[in-house]
Amino acid sequence: MTTTPPRLRPLLDQFDFASERLLRRLAGPVMDSGDGADTEVEPLTDHEYLWEPVPGCWTVRPRADGPGPRAAFLAGAGPWGRDAAPYPHPWPPPVTTLAWRLSHLTEMLALRADHTAGSRSATRENHAVSGDAAAAIAALEHGAAAWRRTLLSADDAALDTVGHSAYPYGSDAEEPFLDVVWWVNQEVLHHGAEIALLRDLYRARRRA
Fold this sequence. Notes:
The protein is mainly α. The chain has six helices and five strands, in the order αββαβββαααα. Strand 4 (about 75) and strand 5 form a beta hairpin. Helix 1 runs parallel beside helix 6 (about 175-205) and helix 3 packs parallel to helix 4 (about 135-150).
């Protein structure tokens, strides 16, 4: 079994805390409030999962409906797809739903795990998009676990290896793996914060 390199441990701890906090924020019944105390939280519903806070959002949609405003196609596999467009992306960028953000984050974790310590064959085109909240949370949990196993398999030499991750949708092939680990953490942190804000806005709107 690979011993976790000391310089990887803080990033692994940060990933564990951020991903676990996000999953509990979504599934409940309690989450870490940030000071170690448990705060009650209602599980994510399908209505909230697909809630569009403003007109013209990008989201996940039944494939039969086609892409939404300013999207060129629906990414992913299965009966649902995620609004997407080729580069250059629309400007200003569309507001994205909680469903869109969860799908994007899950895809990134699952594909990076595969292209680092798996078959290196997974693609955006064959990555399933979840059409309901429960399936999306389960997929995120699975993706986070796969990425964590990838981190645990990395030794010191891997951390310094350029291209240790062959993820084809970013600059991974040009970066030392330690930089990729840092990048994935900030993706979980900033998308987790966006998702948390959308949950707050949905709750406030419902109570109003």
